[in-house]
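Onboarding guide, step 5: your first structure request.
Type a short instruction followed by the sequence, for example:

Predict the 3D structure of this protein.
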Amino acid sequence: QVDLVESGGALAQAGDSLKLSCTASGRTFSDYAMGWFRQAPGKEREGVSCISASDGSADFADSVKGRFTISRDNAKNTVYLQMNSLKPEDTAVYYCAADPTGWGACSVWSMMGYSMDYWGKGTLVTVSS
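The system replies with structure tokens like these:
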């Protein structure tokens, strides 16, 4: 079992930046690909970004490409989502998730969430126009 706790969600204005953090329990964090997802009211969950366990490879949804970056600090068991140039359509609850499959790489399955077995409870990001 892996416990994930997100933080950093806030009320922001369009054009602002926010940095989300997700800290994981356990000693196997460095083996997991990690992802950020979001869900807006009335919409399906969307994969935002995924980062591999160790080589820095990352994927981004087209809607955030060029604005968001993902990073991780394995020594701190933490993954980050840096969000720049925020738009009102970024408003959502943001969740982090961990892929414990062992291969440590992001895939289409990662971005859809199907290989993410552990999820945090979410942190709310609200962006006003």
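Each response can be followed by summary notes, for example: The chain has a mean pLDDT of 95.
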